[in-house]
Amino acid sequence: MTHHPEAASDSGERYTVGVDFGTLSGRAVITRVRDGEILGEAVHAYEHGVMDRILTAGDSRPLASDVALQVPDDYRQVLRRAVPEAIVRSGVAPRDIVGIGIDVTSATVIFTDDDGLPMCETTRFRNEPHAYAKLWKHHAAQDQAHRIVALAEQRGEPWLARYGGDLSSELLLPKALETLEKAPAVYARATRIVDAVDWITWQLTGRLSYAAGDSGYKRMYQDGRYPAPEFLAALHPDFGTVFTAKMPAPVLPLGARAGGLSAAASAWTGLPEGIAVASGNIDAHVHAASVNAVRPGQLTGILGTSTCWVLPAAEYRDVPGIFGAVDGGIVAGAWGYEAGQSAVGDMFDWFTSTAVPQRYLDEAESADMHVNDYLMSLTEAQGVGESGLIALDWFNGNRSILIDSDLSGLVVGQTLRTSAPEVFRALVEATAFGARTIIDNFEAHGVPITDVTVAGGLVQSAMIMQLYADALNRPLGVARVLQAGAHGSAIHAAVAAGSYPDIAAAASAMGRVRADAYRPDPARAAQYDRLYAHYRELYRLFGTGTTVMHQLRDISREAAARRTRHQE
Amino acid sequence: MTHHPEAASDSGERYTVGVDFGTLSGRAVITRVRDGEILGEAVHAYEHGVMDRILTAGDSRPLASDVALQVPDDYRQVLRRAVPEAIVRSGVAPRDIVGIGIDVTSATVIFTDDDGLPMCETTRFRNEPHAYAKLWKHHAAQDQAHRIVALAEQRGEPWLARYGGDLSSELLLPKALETLEKAPAVYARATRIVDAVDWITWQLTGRLSYAAGDSGYKRMYQDGRYPAPEFLAALHPDFGTVFTAKMPAPVLPLGARAGGLSAAASAWTGLPEGIAVASGNIDAHVHAASVNAVRPGQLTGILGTSTCWVLPAAEYRDVPGIFGAVDGGIVAGAWGYEAGQSAVGDMFDWFTSTAVPQRYLDEAESADMHVNDYLMSLTEAQGVGESGLIALDWFNGNRSILIDSDLSGLVVGQTLRTSAPEVFRALVEATAFGARTIIDNFEAHGVPITDVTVAGGLVQSAMIMQLYADALNRPLGVARVLQAGAHGSAIHAAVAAGSYPDIAAAASAMGRVRADAYRPDPARAAQYDRLYAHYRELYRLFGTGTTVMHQLRDISREAAARRTRHQE
Q: Which domains, and CATH codes, for chain B?
């Protein structure tokens, strides 16, 4: 990240650009092909951020509560701003840059014309919410998702098992069906439907293709085909052709060269025209390359507000409760599994803002520590289980392995001596146990895990990471690069540019990981084994044994509805 | 409480004194016999408070963690200070005062000689912890309590059912056995063993007798007899005579005249020599007289740090999970039942000091509201169950109806939108549901409840009381006197003085209660019925269905022991 004037010489060094498009901003990194070193980076925040209350890019009309939209041109601005700035900061000569790769929040859906012009950029639809990019967390297509699953179950569609037997409303298909049903004019006028990852690649190359990973996880592309037209037509008469008419472009494997950089994109970015543009990635999945964990059995966790687990596997097995299983979904030549925990960092933030007395916050500030670390430090002397607490980490439902968004949190074991730091640690332990449940579930269904590597913001907490190693009873590798998404995209770009034969070779050379950074303490691991058994008991009890969490959710919804009616 | 000079005239008005001996102080009130009006009161704090870390009254030796002792002379100081001060404040002429009654924390055990001199006041034993008053919350006799229960079960002792099938370590018998085993010299030297209530009465009259209520609940006096000598001797060879040799005085019914005020006590208090001294009461039980709820079916709750429920009943029924059932235990001529909730105000205080962000505390102060009320006010607009939360109020175990001190707390239903006030309200609801469980348990076992009256510090919160009325689905009567204990003792004194024929007549005239102060809202009560069903499900699940709370407690104890060993 410092200035390296020598790197701009004719040293023979080559570089790639990785660009990570997040929920609120995009980040570009300039990476050395030889060893993966990052030489410069820059961030550009989206002008419109997430539109989830009013349509700020249009006529400011109010939006429903489960709507979350973005403005596609904000992504172009990242290419125009962050990429040139990162190049300048790196001190690298643009002529030495041989490729660019991108990764994007997954299943952010855009409706365009034949040339990739988003519908929201037409005069006719600039005030039409359905013409904007439907962000991954746009949850207004829940009804469509339910109907798609119900029909797939009824027809025994074989691809349903690839998604753990259920589909999220975040996927492309429910969002597209929502547009057809709610804004048929947009649907009719749009000749192409793309996820943002493919739209940005299209912007870079001038040619539309679809990336294999995203296509499998988010566009239902399995075994070389999409869901059948007759299935789709049964959902809506005009939906039968959604793939054939509106998504006719080829699906390219990860690491492939999607095209050469177009003249227009060269002008935006300052990169040489014609350099390799890699097939795009889902942001979480590309972390696996950054931490060199792309071989079968190498599980990577991206621990942030939520946690995403990705796992290449040599063979396919039906694994219940996963988010998706895709051939070539993480790396070409292996099955890629994805599983998730819905609330991790989000839950810790909830706790510190909702349930922590001021003195801890003041003391953390005095000690110049993140409040998470400070709270953890206060229980560091305590033995495993000494607080007598166990929690369930379902504050935003349980994604894997129960796939039940109506589950909720639980803390048990409080006494009049229980402290706030003890409750915090119990929540951290709950997320570690949730991870262990996912690991156990993979192994119980014949998908072996040889090692575990973690990336994401939470790896900055050494105390939380040591707790994970103890509670998982496994050594943990840890990403050396905090922004491992953009870094992983730069690794994919190096393969697309031909610098390495495949992702595995590129990741071996360019991946940056502290292998076995945390090793389990045998005594504490043994005690966590015992505590984990009780976590599993509560997991079974509240996950499947009693319906009390669902009943409470029903009561809550009815009470809120009664109050709303009463106030109207 | 204001000065009433006319009351000191020869108006024919008569007055009594009630003195309530609490855990940290004693309070005297001067009460008008005609109508129960309180004319003056005064408080005196115990010089030594509770000795639970070091023996401050002796050589300051350290005390074990479960030890809690008091200095009997601190009680005498209340008679010397608070009573005269209350008389002065009332403006009442001492000659118009016709009686005195007292109530004391129950099962505070004192070892004395034949004249009532506590062993700790002898030179030999002034540094011996076992020679001091063992306060109700002295918990070092747990082992003895377990052995007494085990033997009683083995022998099929019929009195065990009167205590819900279990005995607290707080009772006199375990504490006396502990002294015999741990400090045999004190036990041998002491010729009398008394509860503080009887020791203070003895100090007032110069003559030892035992009060019926305390004798039944705390000294195992049932059906006119104590546990048999052969039973006691089986616990320890020297214990067979504990009642016959060391507690040979008569047991007097409640409302009886225990004697006339002695010359010494007259000098301490400034009260006329020879006036009636009433048979003493357990502090919680005497509230029933203050709120005029002494007839069968009238349940009184004393809501403070914990909650004590007392209920006179026309007939005896075996009721599992009660704390005690005693003929004449609350009022002569009726069976008196006691049940309890171990953590109520304590749990609310735990929450506000452990789990509430500063802004709520600041806002409560700005609004000049108690933080409990402020937190409640923030959820007032919410419907019943809208938070989606349910809690179990077992932060200090469950006294009634499970009699299980190793149970612990639980909160279920949290989401990332859950707020601190919502959790607080869930804890309040849990205590209300805990109360409802106790009520249901009485009725399910043939002990009817006609009405419910509440007293104690928590009745000051109108929002909590309305929630109780809704959650119990019953109207609530509320004490008008905040210090209803001392007031109740003054009512008993009026009976002992012959001003009324019995407690019921005295309570009718002198009791002060707002009948039906809170009435259930039918709609909210119906919704609470539904929520209560889920509370009951969790109650059964964690009370008897799974042992996870016990397992967590075991793990916690073992972890703490391991750490202590490690640190040594």
A: 19-282 (3.30.420.40), 291-568 (3.30.420.40)
